[in-house]
Specification:
alpha/beta; Rossmann fold; globular; eight-stranded mixed beta sheet
């Protein structure tokens, strides 16, 4: 994407009422105004709140919002020029139960209050295979601790990935730490009875992976 295109998208994001872009300072050094108030201030209802971490273009967040009009969705990514597409689609199609937050995922506890979130989706994250990159792996112990803080006690986490490494790493970590694995499958499109919200929604890249016969893996779990 050219720099002109990026700038145009950044400018347009600033005009969207479904995009929120707090600075790091706003999050870390003061109490962010939406922390604990997402449903009240943004969605104007008490429906369950669901996050998609590393939402990319926002395709999954928008598709989930369409499928579940009685839930609220927030797609989170640091790359605003990417989720511009999802935010624009939501406005054009009048989908009012999805919003986008531009921030780093490690700051998630500053953006959401303790027990504010019902469910988390992690879709096709970078597996960060090299050992020195493990601190950026979105299902490592530090991230799970962050998720536990903002999730309700019975909150669930979904991991959908094309990386068998990420799938195996996460399963091993969950079992080793005594977390509750509700469902695990290393090839959801080949398995009968796979959850419908997992197989009926596909991102652009996911459809490409499927064309290459790459297995798509999925885990649903609770953090104990």
């Amino acid at each position: 994407m050219g720099s002109k295109n990026k700038l145009r998208r950044f400018k347009e994001n600033e005009t969207f009422n479904n995009v929120f872009q707090p600075s790091r300072d706003e999050l870390v050094n003061s109490v962010y105004e939406l922390k604990g108030n997402w449903n009240k201030a943004v969605f104007k209802n008490d429906n369950p709140l669901v996050l998609e971490l590393g939402c990319g273009k926002g395709e999954y967040s928008v598709a989930l919002a369409k499928r579940y009009p009685d839930k609220n969705f927030v797609g989170i990514d640091i790359k605003g020029a990417r989720f511009w597409r999802g935010a624009k689609t939501a406005i054009e199609e009048n989908i009012s139960n999805v919003a986008f937050l531009r921030t780093q995922i490690e700051l998630i506890e500053y953006a959401f209050a303790e027990g504010e979130v019902d469910e988390i989706w992690i879709t096709f994250p970078d597996p960060q295979i090299k050992y020195k990159r493990t601190k950026h792996r979105l299902t490592n112990e530090a991230f799970l601790h962050r998720y536990k803080t903002i999730l309700k006690p019975d909150g669930e986490v979904n991991l959908k990935t094309d990386s068998e490494f990420m799938h195996g790493y996460t399963l091993g970590l969950l079992h080793g730490a005594g977390h509750e694995v509700l469902y695990a499958n290393h090839n959801v499109y080949k398995q009968e009875g796979s959850p419908e919200e997992v197989t009926s929604i596909q991102t652009f890249y996911e459809s490409q992976y499927l064309e290459q016969n790459k297995p798509i893996t999925y885990i649903k779990f609770k953090i104990k």
